[in-house]
Structure of Amidohydrolase:
Amino acid sequence: MAIDAHQHPLFFRDFCADAQIASLRREQQAYYKMGVQDVRRVIEQNRINGVEKSILLPHDFSHFQNDRISNDAMRQLVDRSEGAFYGFAAVDPNRDDAPAELERAFGELGLSGLKLHLAKQKIAPSHMRVLALMEICQRYNKPVVFHAGISWQPDATAQYARPVFYEPIAVEFPKLRFSLAHMGFPWVTETAALLAKYPNMYADLAALYFDSTDEFFHYLFDRAMDYTWLDRGIRHQVLFGTNSPRWGAKRALAAIRRLPLREETVECITGRNALEFLGEEEVNWLD
């Protein structure tokens, strides 16, 4: 069984009961034909497809679009999920109360990490408002997932999302575990180089921009780089992720297992790395 390190709950019925909100999210987040999802069915589908647990990545675009999934609602959903979900917090750095809300999300609500989409929130990784949130995450030993690379979402520009722009965070917060989503596509070799340099950096595979999962993984690890980069170099820092509901787990997991990788590497990618990223297991591969 695997851990999906990148699942979005934006169309879960618990968070999307209002038709107006559903319509806004379809347009503003480029899910143009997505329907509202029943949470129990999502959990059942995940398990049928080989996913035991998922990291839920909510959003807070309250500053520009007045749309967010509240951290209280995320906590309530995780409590009802019977262990199926790890719930991350979402805090728009543009909010004046962002540090206080993140402190509450960790200290009072006990959420598992922080999700930021700076391209949508229109703020640079080096901005003091973002760095203040990183300090809180490092202090609480909570990981961060950043959207990285190109985004299909309207009004989300790559000037805030190119992988190399996140290098200063790795330097300033060496004990902070953070992941660049989507392997930073199309700058995947840039992402891989950063992972090789900084052991506190991770990246996830939620980057299926071609029709075939096999073809896309072949592009990532055989054309853009070499399989040896993954199998011998960065295997402890790559996380399985689907970007669900945009894509599902069944084909992606099967495609990973068809790659010419050692079995231990596949085990790291599909589960063990996520537990280390979350802080549930010790990171001992550097010992």
Summary: DSSP finds twelve helices and nine strands in the chain. Residues 196 and 233 are 7 Å apart (CA to CA). The first helix runs from residue 19 to 28. Strands lie at 2-7, 51-56, 85-87, 89-90, 114-116, 144-146, 178-180, 201-204, 238-239.
